[in-house]
Amino acid sequence: MNHTLESLRKELDRINFQLLNLIAQRGSIVKEIGEIKKKQSVNKFDPIRERKMLDQIIEHNKGPFSDDTVRHLFKQIFKASLELQQEEHHKTLLVSRKRRPLDTVVRIGDEEIGGNNDPIVIAGPCSVESEEQVRKVAQVLKQQGLIFLRGGAYKPRTSPYDFQGLGEQGLEILRKVADEFHLKVVSEIVNPANLNSSVEYVDVIQIGARNMQNFELLKAAGSVQIPVLLKRGLSATIEEFLFAAEYIVSRGNNQVILCERGIRTYEKWTRNTLDISAVPILKKESHLPVIVDISHSTGRRDILDAIAKAALAAGADGLMVETHPDPAVALSDANQQINLTTFRELMKEIDRYNRLNTVKSDG
Amino acid sequence: MNHTLESLRKELDRINFQLLNLIAQRGSIVKEIGEIKKKQSVNKFDPIRERKMLDQIIEHNKGPFSDDTVRHLFKQIFKASLELQQEEHHKTLLVSRKRRPLDTVVRIGDEEIGGNNDPIVIAGPCSVESEEQVRKVAQVLKQQGLIFLRGGAYKPRTSPYDFQGLGEQGLEILRKVADEFHLKVVSEIVNPANLNSSVEYVDVIQIGARNMQNFELLKAAGSVQIPVLLKRGLSATIEEFLFAAEYIVSRGNNQVILCERGIRTYEKWTRNTLDISAVPILKKESHLPVIVDISHSTGRRDILDAIAKAALAAGADGLMVETHPDPAVALSDANQQINLTTFRELMKEIDRYNRLNTVKSDG
Amino acid sequence: MNHTLESLRKELDRINFQLLNLIAQRGSIVKEIGEIKKKQSVNKFDPIRERKMLDQIIEHNKGPFSDDTVRHLFKQIFKASLELQQEEHHKTLLVSRKRRPLDTVVRIGDEEIGGNNDPIVIAGPCSVESEEQVRKVAQVLKQQGLIFLRGGAYKPRTSPYDFQGLGEQGLEILRKVADEFHLKVVSEIVNPANLNSSVEYVDVIQIGARNMQNFELLKAAGSVQIPVLLKRGLSATIEEFLFAAEYIVSRGNNQVILCERGIRTYEKWTRNTLDISAVPILKKESHLPVIVDISHSTGRRDILDAIAKAALAAGADGLMVETHPDPAVALSDANQQINLTTFRELMKEIDRYNRLNTVKSDG
Amino acid sequence: MNHTLESLRKELDRINFQLLNLIAQRGSIVKEIGEIKKKQSVNKFDPIRERKMLDQIIEHNKGPFSDDTVRHLFKQIFKASLELQQEEHHKTLLVSRKRRPLDTVVRIGDEEIGGNNDPIVIAGPCSVESEEQVRKVAQVLKQQGLIFLRGGAYKPRTSPYDFQGLGEQGLEILRKVADEFHLKVVSEIVNPANLNSSVEYVDVIQIGARNMQNFELLKAAGSVQIPVLLKRGLSATIEEFLFAAEYIVSRGNNQVILCERGIRTYEKWTRNTLDISAVPILKKESHLPVIVDISHSTGRRDILDAIAKAALAAGADGLMVETHPDPAVALSDANQQINLTTFRELMKEIDRYNRLNTVKSDG
């Protein structure tokens, strides 16, 4: 390296430190401004002021950078400064692990989901069709030592002419049968107006994929004192998923379970594409428990055991699976529900896997 | 062609006709069964009976087709037969052009959307922020001879910490300013509970993309007597979009405007990917008016005029566009709103295009 | 606004100007370093040096910004500085309009595509099947005053057992028939090894969607002196599409036509989703002509006229469409090719549209 | 159930059996025709004949089914009949497990991939940059008991101005270092013309995602006698992936390893979306070994261990991972490569997981 290059680089280093120094000074001032604004209850982000500053700076730009580049660089600096002011920042969402490093454990009576607890399995028919149907499933759950009985009473269906669920009658059946077998009920609620009354029947409120950005429902779910199982939207980003959870938690209900259930892609051999990477990412970004719906994410019975194990290996706190005494005659999702015999075999596989990989209790 | 091939083909033809004959007989019988069931109010689709028939058939299968192939063929035949029974069939959705060949014209006071009417433009800010802001926009709309003022009062936002709209106060501002300028108000409603009261303020209820499968909201919108502008969901198929409209129409409100607003894809240089093919497909499949939201579908100001013309060329009955007196300081979607000067230029381009292509009045 | 806020803001403004000043100084030094390196033929980007600088800076960071934020800000500053050095920068791609503001006009004999020329139509069968078939199409093209005959001789097919095209024999047929009718041949080449010899037969080399990132083929196409029609990849971003074109142009062949042909999405009612926004974006970002393949992008015959007009309204320099004397018996893409009668009607619609919208000759 | 319904159902059953009988007769005749055609070397699918048959049938249709429905049903019957004729049918692709129920084991010298063998790990830098770099990696591989060294010599890069790899020189480095440590070389070839000569240097030819449908390259890879690692395309369906493998196997090279590497979706927090369901589906549909590229599929270092375990749990026969002595200065994919320390930790995690789950040797 020749002399000139050497000295130019030294010059660069000097400038770098000056820049660092100035940026730090800038940050401190912006922070101070933020505190003043806080006292005055003024919105922290002031776009008019920002635009004026940018205009002034651009006016003074004499190169060598283009105005666009200068504008970009200062927007980055402004943004960083603004983030210093904002408690609402992404890093500090209530659902964020940066805000709360410890795992949230969701408690349903004596049962726990998340943290160091063994992975749970939530199972049951897609739709509640009759008391007999639910009882047959509940018996098998009990035999398998499972606790969580799922079943749809309010069914959000693409067509208004498809079976829409038994409604409140469905919830009554679930409650009755669950009490008989000492099980917990997980069931979807679709109307904010029904949330309060549903608490009589269900132990965990499910919010379905199509309602992940039904913000009115999320707000209502944040106001009840009962755990919420929130499914990722059909095409929601992981970030949008966390924001949806934040709607619930920020209203006061921190008992939220995140459920990855596959996303919509071009692939036709599966109903959805299970985004397995979402599991460890959600676990890293958030302290909430994460489960995987292996039925909706694949829509295929023939790969359930592989997917169940993959979900657990990826760190899921539990699984959700649809089972029906006679899937061929199910009123919804007939193709993806497994019968009770297959369900027992799947549970055997899952148990065997869990016994081998007692990862959590190790830690 | 040799003799054997010739005679084999004749044999094939004979079998084809016999098959046709049998399938027709089958259809007639199934139809008869359907009528009996109708009288008895029994659900037409009987999966247990279907499974038994399939089992019996497979039992008798001696090849050369595999059981899978035979099952597939008979499922197709069963399905065709069932469709003969069902009024609810896709082809006969209320929103389908097969059910109603003539264009539905949506009427808002003296104004009309769809049919042979000239394309309309719905414009206004993303969010209602103040009376002054809305009035500035309304003035320009009036100057341009436009009728439909849009503005968000309830804003469904990804983050609970983003500006959520002024709520009912926003609706009041819209109504007041619209009345001043004799404009019609288009605004989004997000909670079924607010639908009835909103009718006081808005002339067209908008249902947003995130709520396209909020079926409770759709049902509520089907029960009011006021036009509904339904936006396609972020990742909804065209079929799901039509089914969502069917939820509204089947409840008694046939004044529905479909709005293509772009779908979510991997492309990063646009906010969404405008599915331009959806416009002629929706026009063919349905009798409802179709408009295009050129702001959300692109998220880019620099291609609005090209996209506006493309939407009209594809057969859209109207456009929706976001404009703001000062986009840089807008409380939402600052990047995609155009200022009022650019809006006037865009309107000039659109007017020029419409004058050249007076396609509809020709027909 | 109180006194403190006022003075803090003044302080901020002062720091902003100091930052601007330092960043500009930094830019000038980096530029100087770049010139020295250029003389020494050293790669301009030196990741080790960059990492050392970052490490040093972070070491000196005493807050209030986190190390991550400081690292991010300096990376932005480094990147901007590096871009000052690089001619290869995105903004200055050879295909970029920033590099060449004037439209590139592609010349094929006396014919021209792009610039102020009227939109062209490239038509013909998906696959060349026989001389008779191609002649029937060529006759209609001639009657319609069209110049560009397309037809696949080498067919990239998903399955190895599908019809793979007639190969060189297909090219011979195209050339023979085209010469008879004074037409120009557009045909796909799939192997770099065949590019040189194909020049005998074809006037425009087509590079298909599946080969958009077959960089060896792109490089080879950059080395011949014959126009190239480059199709966007199945799931290529617009940016990747431009980079693929850059591979060709940077090798010395600037006669490139960009062809939007739809992208892969979840939607099932169209074969692909035509990304209509790509047309004006490509026209803005690049000086190359842009055409739209209305057959592949939709895969539906029933919306071709609407889509043709939308493409032209969006600013396309031409259209590509598949037509076959008897689509029902076509050896490939039977569903999307139109017969010659429908093709004539489509051309009538397109002509009528173009007559009404003589946009380009106005300017 | 009343008398009429009962008797109508009996009638239906009778017709079902007659239909079955006729369809079987039809199948036998078509099979016979197929054999005659085979002797005459005539293409089995005759679209003109099919259309004539359909036309005749429709002519005779007197309801109750619409012509469309009848056409659909007969097309299904024709298709099933045709499939009886075709050896090339999907179910009987050479890569299909229906064709070959036993696992294919790919052999590289004494090493084996697939079948009951323990999962393998292929590791190394994204690009070969220098002999030192490759040696550092090779040492760690050796220490870890690994056999397969990967490294890119020909790099397909989005931009023509990005580092394009060292080419043949890179292959020489790989070979030299691999020989030193008794490792096997896996490296990508991008040009059919280079395939034959590359055999001197590499033990497994990699075909990259961007070339999955570069059919000329696939054909060339089918003609060499060396294993091929085929990566799934950026947006390829699982079906297209299998067809791509079929191109290679049908040319005579059955030593193919399938590599899932993530697909392109809208999600932004990962580089691609790992389609974990593809692993068990590929294992069920095909007898070829399946591995997972955990670096490209996620693009994130922080979830590699979770994803590695998920891939193995899903049934993968191996993993591919990128590691670099100093990722920060890597000439490509700097963000997703892990350094050698992290690599050692990852291998420890993977080993631990494999020891716990000795699933394969159990069977």
From TrEMBL, chains A, B, C, D:
GO molecular function, one term: 3-deoxy-7-phosphoheptulonate synthase activity
EC number: 2.5.1.54, 5.4.99.5
Keywords: Isomerase, Transferase
Gene3D superfamilies: Aldolase class I, Chorismate mutase
UniProt domain Chorismate mutase: residue ranges: 1-89
TM regions (residue ranges): none
InterPro entries in UniProt: Aldolase_TIM (IPR013785), Chorismate_mutase_GmP-bac (IPR010954), Class-I_DAHP_synthase (IPR052899), CM_dom_sf (IPR036979), CM_II_prokaryot (IPR002701), DAHP1/KDSA (IPR006218), DAHP_syn_2 (IPR006268)
UniProt keyword Phosphoprotein present: no
Pfam annotation, one family: CM_2
Alphabetical list of PROSITE patterns matching this protein: CHORISMATE_MUT_2
Coiled-coil intervals, chain numbering: none
SMART domains: CM_2 (SM00830)
Record protein name field: 3-deoxy-7-phosphoheptulonate synthase/chorismate mutase
Organism: Desmospora profundinema
Lineage: Bacteria, Bacillati, Bacillota, Bacilli, Bacillales
